[in-house]
Design a protein that fits this description.
This protein is elongated. The mean pLDDT is 93. By secondary structure, it is α+β, with helices and mostly antiparallel strands. It has helices at residues 67-79, 82-85, 116-127, and strands spanning 6-14, 18-25, 30-34, 37-41, 47-50, 61-63, 88-94, 98-103, 108-110.
């Protein structure tokens, strides 16, 4: 359980002389850039491991302090707007309060602190 990539462990005694162990692995959800490192995170924001290799197509990238803990809620909002999500290259947490979405073609969209869903809906309309 102390390993970051392990979500849960079940250990059972099989009488008379055996143990059965079932390990549930944390699933990678997104990449989080923090303090110069690129880390794989699970949906709950837990760090699984350092990222090594090339970034797989479509993997969300969140940046900044606390971004790992709020990534799932942002991705849920973007999932509702697939036409916008396909243009998002990264999401930067600003001051622990709001997101700046970095879109392809160098566009930055600064979401408000409150009313993110409405702002994402308007932005998706503009992108369409």
């Amino acid at each position: 359980m102390a390993l970051p990539m392990v979500k849960d462990v079940e250990l059972r005694k099989n009488y008379p002389h055996a143990l059965a162990m079932h390990i549930t692995e944390r699933e990678g959800f997104a990449l989080w850039q923090s303090k110069g490192e690129l880390l794989v995170i699970s949906p709950d924001g837990a760090v699984i491991d350092k990222f090594r290799g090339e970034m797989p197509q479509g993997t969300p990238l969140v940046v900044g302090e606390g971004a790992n803990l709020r990534a799932r809620s942002l991705m849920a909002l973007l999932d509702a707007e697939p036409s916008l999500k396909s243009h998002v290259q990264s999401a930067v947490m600003v001051g622990g309060r709001r997101w700046t979405l970095k879109l392809d073609r160098g566009i930055e969209a600064r979401l408000p602190e409150e009313g993110e869903a409405e702002a994402i809906g308007r932005l998706a309309s503009l992108v369409r």
